[in-house]
Amino acid sequence: MIKVLLIEDNPGDARLIREVLSDTDNQNIALKWVDQLETGIELITKDEFNVVLLDLSLPDSHGMETIISFREQAPEIPIVVLTGLDDEEVAINAVQHGAQDYLIKGQVNSSVIMRSMRYAIERHRLQDELYNLSIVDEMTSLYNRRGFFNQAQQVMNTNAQEGNGFYLIVADLDGMKQINDSYGHHMGDLALMDTANILKEVFYDSDIIARMGGDEFTVILPDTHGHSPSLDTFEQEMILKIQQRLHSFNLNAGRIFHLSISLGLFHYNPAMPVTLGELIIQADHRMYTHKKGKVKVQ
Known about the structure:
Layout lengths: L1 E6 L3 H12 L6 E6 L2 H8 L6 E5 L1 E2 L2 E2 L1 H10 L5 E5 L4 H9 L4 E4 L5 H26 L9 H18 L3 E8 L2 H8 L1 H18 L5 E6 L2 E7 L8 H22 L8 E8 L7 H17 L6
Parallel strand pairs: 1-2, 1-3, 3-6, 6-7
Antiparallel strand pairs: 4-5, 8-10, 8-11, 9-10
């Protein structure tokens, strides 16, 4: 079933769309109609839709702001813009801003509207796949550097608005060069994948875990404490969790190498904001302090 949300303030145009869809050979369509953008945005929080047919001239929104506002609230829903004949240039501009297609009112029929909606859904799916490929590290299936910065910036913006803090962790696979030199790069790749899996096991799915490149990983996790513990205390808690998991792994995994991870963390306080780059530098310094204090991996 294709679930369609129609946001159109003109009852005549809405009736036309409904009649056109009812004339399609494919009757497996569920249409809901609202006449304001705000109502449509409220509806998508309560129900799931495959595609939205969006008029750009609504009582509570007009022009590009309409499509921008909807995409901010529902980036996962493909948009087909509805436009009058004199708005075609605006509609093309809307496509450039993220709409998948546009329909000219008065020129739609059942085949045109069905083709447009199916095209919008498929094109949106392919774009999502390409985007996901661009932000995921192929070897570990974690976020890559680009994906990390995209996700981390969103977390920073949200936490700044809500006044919440979070922790940034820098983790480093110890002895990566030694593993490569002694056992070959295929074993080095395996050590990286093992490290990624351990981080996935220690942290939650909701935490942001990334491989930044080489043997360096980063994690962002929320500050869920009512009052934050000292940085040293929380860092030691995280180190202990990692070491316990590493101990079990090294005993049971049967690898020819010994897996070791160093980490450091820093706290983001929205009352004293710093840049993401500064957070990484501070956590990186603490990670190297941890690394230097450990016995050299044999």
